[in-house]
Structure formats: C-alpha cells, structure tokens
C-alpha cells in the first residue's frame, strides 16, 4: 500500500505513477462500491488495442441507494453532456471511479489536478490525445452498512463544489471551444456589416447599413479576430505532441504572416488618411466636418489596422508558445 503525503484523489494518482510497473493501469474507488473481480471487459479492450477504457455505471447497473438522486439525475448527466459538447466525445459517465489506461498514455497525460477534477482531466486529455477509447459497463454498489461517503461527511455543499471544480477543469482545458468557431463567426458578421458600406450607406433589402452599423461591425470583427487567435494559442498550449504544437505555427509561418500584417497595417493607414487630411484642413474642428465617404472608408482602415496589429502579435505569441511552451 502506498501512502501519499498530500490528500486528494488527483494527488494520489500522480504520486502513484512512478511506482507503476505494469503495462496497463486499472483504477477504481477502494470503498467496495466497485467489484474488482469484474476486470475481464477492461482486459479484453486492452488486448483489442484500446489505450483508455472508461467504466460506465449507466450502461451497467446502479444498485438501489448507491447513488444519490442529485448525482444520478443531475450532476453526472449534466457534466457528462457538457464535456461531450465541448470535446466532441460520446461518454455516458465521465465520473465513474473505475477505468483503465495504459501506463505510457498515463505518463504522457501529465495530470495536474489535485482533487475531484482529476477524473474530468483524464477523460478530456484522453480525447485531446486521440487515444483509442472504449466504454464498458460496470456495476455500482451502495456503501457498506455504517459507512458514510466523503460527500456526506463533508456536508451538503460538497457535491456542488466537486461539480464546480470539474466544470472549471473542462472549461480551462477547453477554452478553444469558446474561442475558435465563435471568433470566426463574429469576425465574419463584422465584415458583412462593414465592407458593403465602405464608401457610404448601403441598402441591402430592408436594412440600410450606415456608419453606425459599420462601427458595430468593426467591434464584432475585432472581438472575433482576437477570439480566433486566442483559440489558436490555446490549442498550441494543449498540444500533446510536436505535430499538435506546430499546427498553427505551420499555418501562420513567421515571415509571410509578419509581411501580411505589415501590409494590412499600411493599407489601413492609407484608407484612413483621407479622413485625417479632411480634419487637418479644417483645423481639427470636428463639428465642421460632416459624415462623408471618408468616414466610412476610415472604418475599413481601422479594421485593417486592427487586423494587422493583432495578427502580428498573435504570430509572435503562437511561435513563442510552440517553441518554449513545453520546456
């Protein structure tokens, strides 16, 4: 038996790894709620080439009184659904305490979680690493007579705290879900609202795109572009292989991307210069300058300047993360 100096489910898994000598690692809660005589399905999946095998209580059986209704009908299904949406997985029970993984994959995961969230971190990293995965049904038994589970001993707030830290692990390690595609959508909407009115108000069906629509489009474009680039950086950080860490630096090679950034910045200055010259001719008297084609063109110029600067800084960051992130 291994005694770890610090408490926590995740901490126990991390401290145990250096002492594991076998090719396959099978783990489960040691409170008699899982039957370790039922390991054959896990071994069969390992022999079939799977590297991560998740137990599922919902595909197996749950003994009456083994799982509180709050966990069975709300906590576990909801958090499992959220992880599946974020990561495109198809698990049915991400909190099952019985699971298997190859030692090599467990070492590459580099688990960091110290507490309950280690279970979610292990699942989401298995998805990130594209491990061959399977689910097997398991039987979940109720606590032995006289034993109180950790959550019951800790009080009513303990399950909610566990759910929150699991969600935190999912969101922190899945930030690109909120950044990449939403960023592309926002940037595209911004372009569609701004470009048609580049030389003046433009009527598209029942809508007339004025300078105010352009300003909204510019804000959405800036927000979307920044979100997309942050998503690229997040995926570079999450990468578990050199190919994954080099994905976005390859798509945004340093020299060509910097040159494009400079060209966008110069284009933006050129597009905004007619409005600047107009203000200079009027002695910077803003009230004496009406809204003309120069204003509309200047909005496109500001969008190009933003795109050039943000693309340049993104290029620096993503290449730095790819180069130094794993040191």
Q: Would you mind describing this structure in some detail?
A:
This protein is α+β, with helices and mostly antiparallel strands. The chain has two domains: about 10-175, Spore Coat Polysaccharide Biosynthesis Protein SpsA, Chain A, CATH 3.90.550; about 175-325, no CATH class. About 60% of the residues lie in helices and about 10% in strands. It has 13 helices and six strands. The strands form two sheets. Strands 1-3-2-4 form a four-stranded mixed β-sheet, with helices on both faces. The chain has a two-stranded antiparallel ribbon with strand order 5-6. β5 (about 200-205) and β6 form a beta hairpin. α5 runs parallel beside α7 (about 160-175). The two termini are about 35 Å apart.
CATH structural class of the largest domain: Alpha Beta
Order of helices and strands: HEHEHEHHEHHHEEHHHHH
Fraction of residues in helices? 55-70%
Integer tally of domains = 2
Quick summary:
This protein has 327 residues and is α+β, with helices and mostly antiparallel strands. The protein has 13 helices and 6 strands.
């Amino acid at each position: 038996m291994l005694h770890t100096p610090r408490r926590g489910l995740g901490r126990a898994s991390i401290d145990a790894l250096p002492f594991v000598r076998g090719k396959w690692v099978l783990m489960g809660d040691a409170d008699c709620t899982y039957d370790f005589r039922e390991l054959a399905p896990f071994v069969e999946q390992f022999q079939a080439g799977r590297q991560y095998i998740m137990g599922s209580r919902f595909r197996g059986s749950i003994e009456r009184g083994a799982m509180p209704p709050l966990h069975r009908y709300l906590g576990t299904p909801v958090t499992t659904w959220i992880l599946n949406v974020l990561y495109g997985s198809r698990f049915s029970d991400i909190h099952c305490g019985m699971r298997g993984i190859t030692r090599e994959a467990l070492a590459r995961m580099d688990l960091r979680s110290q507490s309950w969230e280690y279970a979610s971190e292990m699942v989401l990293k298995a998805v990130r690493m594209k491990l061959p995965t399977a689910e097997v049904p398991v039987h979940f038994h109720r606590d032995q007579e006289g034993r109180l589970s950790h959550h019951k001993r800790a009080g009513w707030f303990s399950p909610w705290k566990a759910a929150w830290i699991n969600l935190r692990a999912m969101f922190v390690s899945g930030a690109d879900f909120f950044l990449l595609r939403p960023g592309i959508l926002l940037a595209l909407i911004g372009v569609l609202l701004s470009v048609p009115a580049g030389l003046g108000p433009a009527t598209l069906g029942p809508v007339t795109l004025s300078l105010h629509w352009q300003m909204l489009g510019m804000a959405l474009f800036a927000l979307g572009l920044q979100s997309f680039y942050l998503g690229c950086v997040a995926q570079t950080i999450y990468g578990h292989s050199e190919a994954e860490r080099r994905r976005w630096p390859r798509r945004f090679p340093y020299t060509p991307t910097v040159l494009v950034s400079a060209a966008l910045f110069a284009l933006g200055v050129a597009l905004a210069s007619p409005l600047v010259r107009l203000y200079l001719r009027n002695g910077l008297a803003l009230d004496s300058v009406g809204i003309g084609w120069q204003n509309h063109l200047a909005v496109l110029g500001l969008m190009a300047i933003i795109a050039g600067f943000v693309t340049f800084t993104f290029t620096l960051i993503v290449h730095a993360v790819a180069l130094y992130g794993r040191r």
